[in-house]
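Technical annex, item 7. During the second reporting period the consortium partners agreed on a shared format for inverse folding records so that results from different sites could be compared directly. Each record opens with the tokenized structure and is followed by the designed sequence. A conforming record, contributed by the partner at site C, is shown below for reference.
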């Protein structure tokens, strides 16, 4: 499947994770089965699909350079906490943009896109200069407008997030984000996230129209 990525300043940093995450989840699993070995208990729980014990573990990410279009998709994952850069208080005069590759590959469309975005920026700046509140001027800002946020998810929800958003059928920008987050999670907690990834890798493909191949043989992420 051809990549439909775009030009983005995407940057993801893991700010924090539950201290002793796998040990904590293992102790929770051991309580459930009265096991004397937390690691075996956790491994068995994950292999059996009994992943409620992972809800005790949380991860916090700082995410920069993503579009407002991505933000709309991201906040559909409701078992999470979000703190997003405010267009009500932050001056958006510079207004960096995330540009899809499908547009950057067409010089004519890219030029038209640039003209349209410049017009938006001019309108925004002129509105603020005339005393229009930023919270009103922001109504002209496009979906392409880049933003930053901090997001916290528990490990169980993260695995579900990766199952959906690392899939080839996911929209390219949120797929790039999910791939980078998955790399960070696997580095921190290889037992919890060892089988994490798109459905075709972690369990089975849930798509009615699956792609031609699983992503396990692809590069972990691709940015432009």
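Designed sequence (site C submission):
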């Amino acid at each position: 499947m051809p990549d439909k990525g775009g030009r983005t300043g995407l940057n993801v940093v893991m700010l924090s994770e539950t201290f002793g995450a796998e040990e904590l989840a293992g102790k929770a699993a051991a309580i459930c089965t009265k096991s004397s070995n937390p690691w075996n208990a956790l491994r068995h729980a994950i292999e059996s699909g009994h992943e409620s014990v992972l809800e005790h573990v949380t991860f916090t990410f700082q995410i920069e350079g993503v579009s407002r279009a991505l933000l709309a998709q991201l906040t559909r994952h409701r078992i999470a906490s979000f703190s997003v850069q405010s267009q009500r208080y932050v001056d958006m005069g510079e207004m960096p943009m995330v540009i899809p590759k499908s547009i950057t590959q067409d010089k004519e469309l890219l030029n038209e896109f640039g003209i349209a975005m410049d017009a938006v920026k001019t309108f925004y700046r002129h509105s603020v200069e005339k005393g229009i509140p930023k919270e009103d001027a922001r109504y002209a800002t496009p979906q392409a407008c880049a933003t930053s946020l901090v997001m916290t998810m528990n490990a169980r929800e993260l695995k579900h997030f990766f199952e959906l958003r690392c899939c080839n059928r996911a929209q390219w920008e949120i797929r790039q984000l999910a791939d980078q987050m998955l790399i960070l999670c696997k580095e921190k907690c290889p037992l919890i996230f060892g089988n994490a990834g798109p459905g075709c890798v972690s369990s089975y493909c849930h798509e009615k129209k699956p792609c031609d191949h699983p992503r396990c043989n692809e590069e972990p992420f691709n940015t432009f």
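The CA atoms of residues 13 and 62 lie 5 Å apart. Residues 107-129 form the longest helix (23 residues). All partners now use this format for quarterly exchanges.
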